[in-house]
Amino acid sequence: MPKAAIRRFHHLPDDEQSRVIEMAWEDRTPFEAIERLFGLGEPDVINIMRHQLKPASFRLWRKRVTGRTTKHQALRSPNVQRGYCPTQYKR
To answer: What is the reported pTM?
Structure first.
């Protein structure tokens, strides 16, 4: 893992790490939304998931999100204007 990614990952408070993992598991939350909120690109999210999940869970997640159109904004239909349900975030 690149040192910059390690630094960003370890500087996130536990609640933010938990939220990144939750958003990464959500089918309709694109990686771009995670990047906007936390400044973590897709490779950073993959590294967090790799280090925080059990190996089997990480493999399942990678298989699930690889190529999924809802996880990559560039692959989405232009008709989709948001990446999540309006009531999803509890902030």
So the answer is: 0.70
